[in-house]
Amino acid sequence: MEISKIYLQNELSRFFSWWIGELSSLIPAKIYGMLKTGSNCLVIDVLDTEIRIGRFQGEGFKDLAQIESSYQNSDNIRNAIKKIIRQQKANQIIFRIPEAKTMVRILPDFPKIMENNLEEALFFELEKLTPFRPDELWLDYRICGKNSEKGTIDIQMAMVPKKTILEFVELGRSWGVEPDQVDLVGDDASKQTKFNFLKHAQNIRPSRFRSINWIQSMLVPSLLAGVILFPMFHQYQTLQKVNRQVDQIRIKAERSMIVRDKINHLVSESKFFSEYKNNLPTFAEVLEDLTKIMPDDTWLVRLGVSRTSIKISGYAKSASNLIEIIERSNTFTDVVQSSSFVRDPKLERERFKFSFQLEQKRTTER
After folding, report:
1. In this structure, are strands 332-337 and 299-305 parallel, antiparallel, or unpaired?
2. Could you give phi then psi for residue 296, rounded to 5 degrees?
3. Dist CA 96 CA 80 (whole Å)
4. Most buried in the list 59, 279, 334, 355, measured by CB within 10 Å?
5. How far is Cα of residue 18 from the mean position of the Cα atoms in its chain?
């Protein structure tokens, strides 16, 4: 965990170093060299028999650690480099490879007129100077002399096979280190312009920040998704809240409608019974109508009045005539003879029993 933290800090430091380095490309070489004297640069020499770690000090080189090459695949070298990076607070890592693995040539009396296009000019010289194709090499150069009278410049050019550079870069990555620069072992530390074979190595430059780029590639879509989804999620929550409120209101409304229907039903029933009751004749009206329609020779012995029906019994000279008399009444209807007529010899009258219904009131008669 501590190594990862240190590595991330180192990557961030390298990013700012690269950014400042790009800006500094517009600064003249002498001024840039003066400004770079205070940079914290760690140098790792990858030799055949040992790995030497140090830093530039003034015009010389100060050794910080030496590790036998037999340990280069173990954790010892990784731990040693991480420890020194932490102690030295290094913000630049330079790998230096043995000069035997490179090809260094001096090109004297090169036309000064080509100074502004040296890279293109040197590219065409590669086939003459090396057995490799131009696309198999990485090169760097520096001007080591000028002759104003002849109008020429002397150029020191160093070339390394791409395969060799990639092997050293992968070796450094196995140690958890990404080089900012690949130089030559034994190159003069006092020279302000040093070789850097990674200067044009665009195919491996992005890997320097591979962990940061990986985090960014994961973080940017996540943030973008958050920006898009958060308002949608907020609207979804609001919609859910509104739906719950609507459901509660609907339940209350349904309950209110049920209560309203019950009230309307009760009112309707109450109104029906009230109207029905009001349309029926009262007991006094029943008694009055019976008195009016009954002949004078008819006697009522019993009178029973329910809500809609009446039962009577008594004596009459002609009980059969009473049926027609009662049915002609506007108050009574549906006369039914409840028993046979029996003549009483003492009273000289027929005994009868009738039941009939009450007729509802007719407004025209009231």
Report:
1. unpaired
2. -70, -25
3. 17
4. 355
5. 35
d(CA 3, CA 1): 5
* Count of C-beta atoms within a 10 Å radius of residue 290: 19
In angstroms, the CA 181 to CA 194 distance is 9
Query: For residue 293, what are the contacts with CB-CB under 8 A and spacing of at least 6?
Result: 325, 326, 328, 329
Q: How many CB atoms lie within 10 A of CB 48?
A: 8
Q: Compute, in degrees rounded to 10, the torsion defined by CA atoms 252, 254, 258, 259.
A: 20
Return the number of other C-beta atoms located less than 10 Å from residue 349's C-beta.
Answer: 19
- Residue 250 main-chain phi, psi, to 5 deg: -65, -40
The alpha-carbon radius of gyration of the chain (Å, integer) is 60
Give residue 81's pLDDT: 80
Check residue 281 and report its DSSP letter: P
- Report the C-alpha gap between 341 and 353 in whole angstroms: 8
Spatial separation of the C-alpha atoms in residues 14 and 36, rounded to whole Å: 14
The model's pLDDT over 46-58, given as tens digits with 9 standing for 90+, comes to 887 788 888 876 6
The pLDDT tens digits of the residues spanning 70-118 come to 655 567 777 888 888 888 877 788 888 888 888 888 888 888 888 788 8
> Crossing angle, helix 75-88 and helix 2-24, to 10 degrees?
60
The total number of residues shown for the chain amounts to 366
Residue 47's alpha-carbon distances to 51, 98, 210, 299, in angstroms, are 6, 6, 27, 150
Return the amino acid letter for 111: P
pTM of the model: 0.44
Tokens encoding 329: 């009444």
Instruction: For helices 2-24 and 210-279, give the axis angle rounded to 10 degrees.
Output: 110
184 within 8 A of 90, measured Cβ to Cβ: no
Tell me phi and psi for residue 265, to 5 degrees: -65, -45
Question: Rounded distance, CA 172 to CA 179, Å?
Answer: 7
CB 211 within 8 A of CB 8: yes
Residue 179 CA to residue 71 CA, distance in Å, equals 20
